[in-house]
What we know:
Mean pLDDT is 82; it is low at 73-82 and 465-481. By secondary structure, the protein is α+β, with helices and mostly antiparallel strands. The chain has 16 helices and eleven strands.
Amino acid sequence: MIRHLRVRNLATIEDLEIRLQAGFSVLTGETGAGKSILIDSLRLIGGEKASPDLIRTGCREAVVEAILTRPAGVSPSAALSPDDAEMTVQRVVADEGSAKAYCDGILVPLKRLRDATAGLIDIYGQNDHVFLLRLESHLDYLDQQAGTLDLRTETAALASELRARWQQRLDWRAKEKERQQRLDYLEYQILELEKAALRPGEEEEYRSERHRLRNAEKIGGLLDKALLLASDGEPSLSALALKLQSTLDELAGFDPAFAEYRDALSPAVIASREAADFLGRYRDRQDVAPERLEEVEARLSLIEGLKRKYGAGLEDIQSRLDALVGERDDLLRIHDKLAEADAAIAALHAAYAGKAARLSDLRQVEAPKLGGLIEREIGLLGMKKARFEVRVLPRPVPLEAADGARDTGWDEVEFLISPNPGEDLKPLRKIASGGELSRIMLALKSAGRAREGASTLIFDEIDAASAAGRPISWPRSCAAW
């Protein structure tokens, strides 16, 4: 519950403190007295986004602070440890548009604040009875009260997979009709790629070779120059190195110090000879046929064409080939694929039917209990002779229509009401007045309070739309604002 609330510089409120006790509290006042501002302050505490327009004129920031307690039976929030029963929350809204949230003095993201206060405050306004006009809301409320949300999640997972498998089978059947045409097309593409026989890294090899072939004349001139320096010239590098080594050998006979340099020249002599041999062999290989450049250009052109059709690189092309081969193999055994799909659909449908049937059984057990509880609650709100029913209509999904499996199971749930004695039960969403909807919504909130775990229920002018302006008799079980 809310034990303490302080609001500073929010709209028309300069500085206000409210201390609340457990039980039922009512704040009344004329239009413009500030009741809605207090509701806005509590929405800020609950983690709603803040606007600088809320700041009091002439002030730099607005601050809302609250002390919240968690009553017994309400699960701890994300910000509370199991031993914590009290939490301090603060929202600061600055005029430049920034807003900060604090839990127990620690700056936290807005989502963390929403998680921390979830289940501790529930605000209900006079227009929230729109909830009752949507059939999916009726189903959601029943599942929440019946405690079947986990089972419904499991049912939804099976329904989703079942629909996906059904669509997969439809895709296979469509492919079966165009099977031969698609096979011909796949065979053409596979043959084109297999005939190309691409190798990893060959594009780089061919580009390098093309670069050499295009510059063959310049490379030949440089080879001749290098060979002349290494061995063919007079004097050559090899001959000069040998001559220097011989001279150092003679000098070593007079002074052993020269022997060290004579020995050091041996690797240079060997290297110069090896370089001369390599240059000679390379020059011999330069005598290639002129059409080799054309062959390389043709290969590179083929690779570029395949890249445009099948992928940005050779790895992508290979992946594409693997995919084409896989699809071809699947089409060749498409009847086996369809049989596998049928078996998978049957198994999934059986599992879905089991979950949906269990879900339906639990709903049908809970529906009369919930209907009776709501009927008692609306009786406390001035509708003493009204009858209320939660109707559950199971509509099993047959195997041949498995694509219609719904995430919520196969039940249709609707609230029915008979406001006056002697009248038949009819859909609430079609016959209830605005005032009746407000009262029923209040009854639903009160009935679901224990399971929802809301510590404080806040009702903002929920009787404003009541028929003929009749006041609402508040249920004893409500803690209201």
